[in-house]
Amino acid sequence: MEAGALVRGSRPDEVEVAATKSSAVDPVTAMDRAVEDLLRRRLAARRPDDAILGEEGDDVTGTSGLTWVIDPIDGTVNYLYGVASYAVSVAIVAGDPDPARWTPLAGAVHSVVDGVTWTAAREQGADRDGLPVQVRRADSLATSLVGTGFGYEAERRAEQARVLRHVLPRVRDIRRLGSAAIDLCLLADGRLDLYYERGLNPWDMAAGGLVAVEAGAVLSGLDGAPATRRMTVAGSPDRQAELVALLEEAGA
Ligand code: IPD
């Protein structure tokens, strides 16, 4: 993948923060911008009628009813510090590009450092480097390994910490790996049993969410709602429902 090669090939020893977004600890690097620019140029040349929704740029409107949802580096803090978990995430969705209403058609998550790529197409399954992947079916919530993530704003983090306090004693353990796209693909790949996070943006979940669903996961929000910014919960059907119930009990 050209975008992955760009990130892999030119990470300086000292990555600088070019700007911050939702808070002082929510960084944007020059590489986030360069990768998004590359993807936008490629898509504009090949798919001029499609819309683009990207983390680092202005929304592009289209006429085809299709939208490319791009996260140039999901896991920017890991990229900043040289921690190996960050990915380029690209998906195409039909209809309103809002997670509550969209229909994801295809997606790819390319984990930059190890070069692993997960792909999925609607109703055609999910693959890691061309080999099919399938979610695990943990025996119980209590023995489930659960991935999660945190936002960048202090108030949201305080709320996430409160919910985590309720969840942690009731599961095998928690992983906070720093890239929602990779978390969802690891779930698809059977390396996590469950995943939940509040506050995800469409580009964090578009491709990874489809990979997870196509690998057999249920993806939803709470109280019967679809997965949205308010809450995203993913896992094999039985365990996902149990985690939803636990999060509801916690008032998440
Ligand atoms: C972040 C990562 C992280 C998640 C945050 C996201 P970014 O995306 O996916 O794992 O916990 O909520 O914002 O900022 O690195 O693209």
From TrEMBL:
Under CDD domains, the record lists: IMPase (cd01639)
Annotated PROSITE patterns: IMP_1, IMP_2
Catalysis: reaction(s): a myo-inositol phosphate + H2O = myo-inositol + phosphate
Top EC group: hydrolase
Gene3D superfamilies, sorted:
3.40.190.80, Fructose-1,6-Bisphosphatase, subunit A, domain 1
**GO molecular function terms attached to this record:** inositol monophosphate 1-phosphatase activity; metal ion binding
Q: What is its EC number?
A: 3.1.3.25
Residues annotated for Mg(2+) binding in this entry: 55, 71, 73-74, 204
What cofactor does its activity depend on?
Answer: Mg(2+)
Q: Which InterPro entries match?
A: IMPase, Inositol_monoP_metal-BS, Inositol_monophosphatase-like, Inositol_monophosphatase_CS
Pfam families reported in the protein's UniProt record:
Inositol_P (PF00459)
Name the keywords, alphabetized.
Answer: Hydrolase, Magnesium, Metal-binding
GO BP annotations, alphabetical order: inositol metabolic process; phosphatidylinositol phosphate biosynthetic process; signal transduction
Family statement: Belongs to the inositol monophosphatase superfamily.
Protein name per its UniProtKB record: Inositol-1-monophosphatase
